[in-house]
């Protein structure tokens, strides 16, 4: 499914899973388990050798999923994500070079920020929907409330350290549109292929707000 603007990602549910996956054999069943639980937007991080192959498998075999690449740090990452069939990109921080590469690749970018200066830099380049990362370590709810004053035109996807229990507190903030969370795909569940557990975690996440 095509994504024209990164803010569209927030319209599909309150949580975007941040997925670290080691085996391409797990990619399609994992994607199907999440979609079955009501979670369609899937951020697969570029943190493992299998990541790109996993993205490609998910995008091809699970068309109802909206597959994106996370941990995009370079122009080469952006091009590789496009070639794997990704619909969007997420970066841990912000650089103009990565933003330009994503534009050239036709990938809507959700760029990461942690400070007011980084918000200003990304905003100056036309980005008004930003990933606040690492959310808890960078000040959490208090920081997001503080950023709301000088940046009333910016909204966020906080990611990093958020749990099922704390997500509603973040989602209650006016400048938060969606949360990122790794708790939907715990490593121990993926390692034993407990897809029913992941579907249940997805259902719980999809019902937040």
Explain what this protein looks like in three dimensions.
Helices cover 38% and strands 16% of the residues. With 209 residues, it is an alpha/beta fold. It has a 6-stranded parallel beta sheet with strand order 5-4-3-2-1-9. The protein has a 3-stranded parallel beta sheet with strand order 6-7-8. The chain is globular and about 45 Å long. The two termini are 25 Å apart. The mean pLDDT is 97.
Short description, anyone?
The protein is 38% helix and 16% strand. The protein is globular.
> Residue share in helices?
25-40%
Terminal CA distance reads 25 Å
Number of E-state strands: 9
Structural class: alpha/beta
- The biggest beta sheet, please? 6 strands, parallel
**Spatial strand arrangement across the major sheet:** 5-4-3-2-1-9
- Segments where pLDDT lies below 50 for 5+ residues? none
- Summarize model confidence as the mean pLDDT: 97
- Radius of gyration (CA) equals 16 Å
Strand content: 15-25%
* Helix and strand element order: EHEHEHEHEEHEHEHEHH
Q: What's the shape?
A: globular
How many helices?
9
Short descriptors:
single chain; 209 residues; alpha/beta; 6-stranded parallel beta sheet; 3-stranded parallel beta sheet; 9 helices; 38% helix
């Amino acid at each position: 499914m095509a994504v024209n603007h990164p803010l569209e990602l927030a319209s599909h549910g309150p949580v975007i899973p941040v997925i670290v996956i080691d085996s391409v054999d797990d990619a399609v069943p994992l994607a199907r388990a999440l979609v079955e639980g009501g979670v369609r937007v899937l951020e697969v991080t570029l943190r493992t050798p299998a990541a790109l192959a996993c993205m490609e498998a998910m995008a091809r075999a699970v068309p109802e999923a909206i597959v994106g690449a996370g941990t995009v740090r370079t122009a080469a990452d952006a091009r590789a994500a496009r070639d794997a069939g990704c619909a969007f990109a997420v970066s841990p921080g912000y650089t103009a070079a990565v933003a330009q590469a994503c534009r050239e690749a036709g990938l809507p970018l959700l760029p990461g920020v942690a400070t007011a200066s980084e918000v200003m830099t990304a905003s100056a380049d036309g980005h008004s929907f930003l990933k606040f990362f690492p959310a808890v370590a960078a000040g959490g709810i208090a920081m997001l409330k503080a950023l709301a004053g000088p940046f009333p035109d910016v909204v966020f996807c906080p990611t990093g350290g958020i749990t099922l229990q704390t997500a509603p507190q973040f989602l209650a903030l006016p400048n938060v549109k969606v949360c990122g969370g790794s708790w939907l795909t715990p490593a121990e569940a993926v390692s034993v292929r407990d897809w029913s557990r992941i579907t249940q975690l997805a259902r719980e996440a999809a019902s937040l707000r």
